[in-house]
UniProtKB/TrEMBL annotation:
Residues 38-141, 145-248, 252-355, 359-462, 466-569, 573-676, 680-783, 787-890, 894-997, 999-1100, 1105-1205, 1210-1310 form the SRCR domain. This is SRCR domain-containing protein. GO terms for cellular component: external side of plasma membrane. SMART domains: SR. Disulfide bonds join C107-C117, C214-C224, C321-C331, C428-C438, C535-C545, C642-C652, C749-C759, C856-C866, C963-C973, C1025-C1089, C1038-C1099, C1069-C1079, C1130-C1194, C1143-C1204, C1174-C1184, C1235-C1299, C1248-C1309, C1279-C1289. Residues 1-25 form the signal peptide.
Amino acid sequence: MFCVYLRRICIVLLLDKMFCIFCKTSPMSCVSLAVLEVRLKDGAHSCEGRVEVKYQGEWGTVDDLNWSMEEAAVGCRQLGCGGATDAPKGAHFGLGIGPIWFRYIYCKSQESAITECSYPSVKDHRPEGNSHDKDAGAVCSALELRLINGDHSCEGRVEVKHQGKWGTVNDLNWSMEEAHVVCRQLRCGAAVDAPKGSKFGPGIGPVWFRYIYCKGQESVITECSYPSLKDHRTEGYSHNKDAGAICSAREVRLKDGAHSCEGRVEVKHQGKWGTVNDQNWSLEAAAVVCRELKCGAAINASRGAHFGPGIGPIWFQYIYCNGTESSLMECSYPPLKNYLSEGLSHDGDAGAVCSALEVRLKDGGHRCEGRVEVKHQGEWGTVNDHSWSLEEAQVVCRQLGCGAAIDAPGGAYFGPGIGPIWFHSTNCKGTESVLTVCGYPSLKDHRPEGLSHDQDAGAVCSDLELRLMDGDHPCEGRVEVKHQGAWGTVNDYNWNMEEAHVVCRQLRCGAAVHAPKGSKFGPGIGPIWFHYIYCKGQESAINECSYPVVMDHHPEGHSHNKDAGAVCSALEVRLKDGAHHCEGRVEVKHQGEWGTVNDQNWSLEEAQVVCRQLKCGAATDAPRGAYLGSGTGPIWFQYIYCNGTESLPTQCSYPPLKDHRPEGLSHDGDAGAVCSALEVRLKDGAHSCEGRVEVKHQGKWGTVNDLNWSLGEATVVCRQLGCGAATSASRGAHFGPGNGPIWFKYTYCKGIESVLTDCTYPVLKDYRPEGLSHDQDAGAVCSALEVRLKDGAHSCEGRVEVKHQGEWGTVNDYNWSMEEAAVVCRQLGCGGAVDAPKGTKFGPGIGPIWFHYIYCKGPESAITKCSYPTVKDHRPEGHSHDKDAGAVCSALELRLKDGAHRCEGRVEVKHQGEWGTVNDLNWSLEEASVVCRQLGCGTAVDAPKGTKFGPGIGPIWFHYIYCKGPESAITECSYPTVKDHRPEGHSHDKDAGAVCSEVQLITNGTSQCEGQVKMNISGRWRVLCASHWSLANANVVCRQLGCGVAISTPRGPHLVEGNDQISTARFHCSGAEAFLWSCPVTVLGGPDCSHGNTASVICSDSRQLRLVDGGGPCAGRVEILDHGSWGTICDDGWDLDDARVVCRQLGCGDALNATGSAHFGAGSGPIWLDDLNCAGNESHVWRCPSQGWGKHDCRHKQDAGVICSDREKLRLRGGDRECSGRVEVWHSGSWGTVCDDSWSLAEAEVVCQQLGCGPALEAVWAAAFGPGNGSIWLDEVRCGGRESSLWDCAAEPWGQSDCKHEEDAGVRCSGE
């Protein structure tokens, strides 16, 4: 283009975003157009506000002359904020400050940045009379994108969310280029097709895009050209032309390197792994691969098949990256196809070597503040503060798990570092999960370029804690966040199910079922920390979401009337219909109902997470296609995507939970998992807490390779074995080489995990075939820790000391608080903490300082269950005994107040010399039982909530208590810090109570409901005299104990007698009283009783028995109903004699099998019995000898089950030999048949194998062996073929059939 410039003819050129003027008599002069940054300021979020442009290092505004939706659309596109929904003028978002850089802008709306529009010279236009009263603004709608109605999440109809509503894209101009951008934005790899004409069915709602024009290399569709977003149906467009896309989800890996972060670059496309040709391959491209794999920075970009030639296709002819992309799919490259046919060979395969970057904060007051340092190539270095801001600091804080950034100091605020300056600059949005996902130039030491440590960047973080308050349980309530030591709330602006979902996931409360707004759980108090939060719904914690700077937003006019809340459904997981409780169909309990997981995307990674949650060790198989039988009920998960290292499926990515059957999914695609429960031991050491680390997998003991083995990993092993702290992490087969498999190639632990399976590790297999040997077996030496309080006034206060390696040492008071002191007090049985003194209040200790710090949540039972760094003497690091931590504990007193007697009433606890109450959150019979036991008041018969005994006064000491039931005192239960919770909004309207029975029966083990009657009189237990003891008296005792009605009042030696004192009290009950002490009583003149003449009773027993989750009433997990609660039996000592009693009691015939290890799934509620020892002839299972009612040391993974004979009676009738005929089953006391609906060779195989008749030859239909008679017990039977019994297969409920006997099923088996 020619122009006249200073009366000379000049040429104007646009060269790579440079505006250049070349005149004949002057050198070329160029000005960069790329220097202009754009932002939206003072809006409610980052995608609305006053338009500001950064020019010559200074932010300025845009005058609203000619400002319209077209100009706003370009601003929104440039910011990646989707389409424009408004273009306000007249300083709608307030007056800006500084220059007015643009007098006007004219755009066509299809430009990708405002510098591509037309505008006069960029300068400050205020001297020309322009003012900030006319600053232009923009309101954008950040566009979300999805593919709908395809076979998976990476194919389907293209839909865009605009103004809160999903709509479609018209297929005008639609081609592979546009589809390519859609696939790239969704991280679904490359486009393989761009279907038009509503191939995936017509959509509903708006048609937002009339057309889109892309070059194919854009990263998101908002970078393409398109007209203004609006509903184009009014212009005659219909959903018959909705555009679609089919993508090939692309995975990336590094192969044949020494570890997972180096090797040949391979990409999975169209289901096949292939390589990348090294044409144009550079460190920038390798950096993108390393970033995508979260392997840190690239340190080499090898060419020429450095890691050996690959096999299969060469998918990439070349790739061009600038180095800041987050994945390879965001780089530029030609269409993906196999380039082997064009002459390329694997001799030119590209490779990458990455250095996984570690990050730390150094020389701050605590681990969450300090100078930012990065470890690269084995050396720690710093980050230059060029472009350093809160956004970059936010990413560092998030990566370190330190919550939100509250400051981003530059200028070596925490002192100059030493060594390399690895980062010249960083550019983060603030929402990235790790620093390596941000943009930055190549990592190298920038000191030779003139940078110095005077400009080292720093970060100050505030670790965010999260809780739900004032709901009915800990998984619902008002969302509260702890920041800078104070709890505050979240404003409900933008609050929806995605945000609630992340809250529920972070709290391990399962899926969100509701995201209430408007202070549904009552207004909070204190700061409003979050103006808004924006989550995609798949993040693992809220600090991974997007949000503005965390500060108190009260001064901005926000109030607690808009506090956000969340209601979560804690997801339970189980494996069903496998051979044992660690294999089976994956089932999830959501909204109170069990459902299944569809097998789309199901792999060993997802199965690994399920196995880890169930504490079942490693996944050995991830079967698909209902391999372990079809489930029933909802299909809750359309798909789930895990990387394999998560601890719970709820930490993986998945779409909203709902029943996906209406969308066409069926139980034929149910996913399964087969796990191998891992045991750990230390072998060939001097004692059981040192030795070679060995793991039992698939029934075989094997070893752990010492790659990456350190004290962090050894600490977890020691913790898992209950052996205290790790003192050494030996390598090189220090305890001798093991034998057998090498199960672990490596493990990576942070050191705070509770078991080894919580760490990160590759798939478990024998790595000896890959060249590993037992010369590198890992080992561990542990030291069991003792704790004491020293130099206090009594044994429950003093300086905290820990015995490690045989020597007592102290704990540094860094991070020391009431939570840590509470754990010490609990471990020592000293009640609650009343003070957590720092600074050597009890005098300086001597010897080592074993703990640099401890971090506890408060409810842990011992300090070894808290988080802490390696236990060693920290004095050489500069720590001194001037900062020894201490604890003052208050052994809590307990009483029941305002009841009819001393063993019932409102629960009150004396703490710091003052009586207070217990909030009834989580209060149940288990907690009341512990109160009754501690007070010597017998058993709990009720656990009233809601101030049954009137509101208390004074403090509310306990926010909640969680007990298992067998504890001897409430201080052995779990509870948060003991303090007055009234300031948090709790009131005495929810004081907990307990009703204890002062009557008990001394039994001989036959039953909990028969025996000698004992009563607590004046604090002492006494037996009652049988003189004048009546059936009416006995009836009251049975009722009081929840044992039904009295059957008899026997006397004789068959009941327990002891040396207890005998009471001479005589009761005169009518039989209708609720409690024995409610009856009239007189006292005999003298004791005319002997131990052979004491009151006794046999009650009818109100307990009930059932079998559940076994497919019928005569098989399943054993459950007993007592006091309104169903509970289970522990499998300790469980055998066929015990099972026979259960089967007989239920009328289910004899016992065939006594199952353990929660074979029928883990139950819930109490565990009523343990160490059962039945003779086999008892009438009730609870009359067998045991540890005692409610006493156990088990978990529900040890629930006992039975299979009774009436459950699996199976026979063949009407055939010409024993192993062929009509299939008949026994149920409810009679034989019946099976309908042939869905009957196939798979079902026949199960029948033949169950009868010992060999493999099935034929599945026979239509009553080929003659019609049966009686009931048709089963219909729609569906087996996988591997089940051990027909009862393990899915079917319609027993007796529910629409068949006739002309449809009776039969089999022909190979056996005779």
